[in-house]
What we know:
The complex is a heterodimer of chains A (127) and B (324).
Chain A: E1 8-9, E2 14-15, H1 19-43, H2 46-49, E3 52-53, E4 56-57, H3 58-78, H4 86-120
Antiparallel strand pairs in A: 1-2, 3-4
Chain B: H1 25-54, H2 62-65, H3 79-103, H4 107-137, E1 142-145, E2 150-155, H5 164-167, H6 197-206, E3 210-217, E4 223-225, H7 228-234, E5 238-242, H8 255-288, H9 290-294, H10 298-323
Antiparallel strand pairs in B: 1-2, 1-5, 2-3, 3-4
Amino acid sequence: MAHEHKLEIFRGLLKFKSNTQKIWGVLTFLTLVTIVEVALGILKPAALTHSYFLGMKVLNWIFIILTLVKAYYIAWDFMHLRDERSSLRRAIVWTPIFLVAYLIFILLFEADYIYQVYRDGFVKWNF
Amino acid sequence: MDSTVTTGTEENVWGGGNQPLGASYGKLMMWFFLVSDALTFSGFLAAYGFSRFKFIETWPIADEVFTHVPFFHGNFPMYYVAFMTFILIMSSVTMVLAVDAGHKLQKTKVIWYMFLTIIGGAIFVGSQAWEWATFIKGDFGALETKGGRILQFVSADSGERLALRDFAETLHEERVDHEKKNGIWYYEGESLPSYSLNEVVEGVKSDPNVLIRTELLNEDGHKTVLTRDETLKKLNDATLVVEGANLVRNEYGSRLFADFFFFITGFHGFHVFSGVIINVIIFFNVILGTYERRGHYEMVEKVGLYWHFVDLVWVFVFTFFYLV
């Protein structure tokens, strides 16, 4: 099987000479992201835990975004989706994204509603 | 962008032999499986999010639960999980390197990289088992109230957590396990905790330094600590001593927390375990030269996809269970 690898990441900002080199480059990047996550998780800067965006702490948003960044590079470079046809890539990526986004939307709103019922309703559960 | 459909002559489009997605049958099926598996994991994690949002004010703080590192004593939040994450990413890297060597038909390299991948996977599964054992054993112990809530203990001077053994009185009362020989109607009795409820209650009453910490989170994201008076009043609600965790109750807080922990990390651990088994099978096939004779190493690529997927799932579990 003749395989051609696309060797640039960060939208062409960084171009590697060989596939092996690219793998190590991606590993370095993923490790850095994990270190940042753990450091933030241990330090918990007050500026990030006391500010909210869409009902969630900014720190948690940062974690989720960094996770998606990691997921992107694992799928694109380790699972070599970058080298696949765009049709295959879209079928694989967008199907779960749509379904999961829908599920999360439904469940989290419902959960928040139940939380409010527990808090404001005449039901005592925390005793 | 790459073209989607390969069109030779018009008649050939429906004549078979086309590969519109440019992937072999086996690879495509692996991707289908991974997509459906991804949806399963998403379902679990979304259910976790549901329960967490439902009990947003009382959910346990992961940093305070996962604080152990093997062979070391002390409080190291997250370090070990971060190490596990790194191990799994590292084994993912050796897996890509094996796939890459496979494309170049370098058998020895494939063998070595597969070997390293298997070792990484084994270390991860072992760490997971250790993590479970620590979680099940617990370290501080707690009381459960009538409402099924957990009461933990802190020291009034230092604000640090207190374990039951730090303050519980030793009362000379009779405590026996319910055994089969003692009853005509035998149903499993729960094993007795190290201290009886009375011993813990008396211990709190006699030591003015002990305060109760409830599940409720305050504005700073810390658990609420009661005053001494409130502590003594709250003691009346206690019904049970809880040590460690099982599927019914756990000393860390909300019961659902342990349930989801066992379920999600267990399901993921099972994936890693089966991944290691599949890797071992392919590893031996590579050694025997099966793929050398076949002329390509696509099988390595396919198990590689599965292995990376396991890593991908862990990235999400790590975030939602340990970080957020």
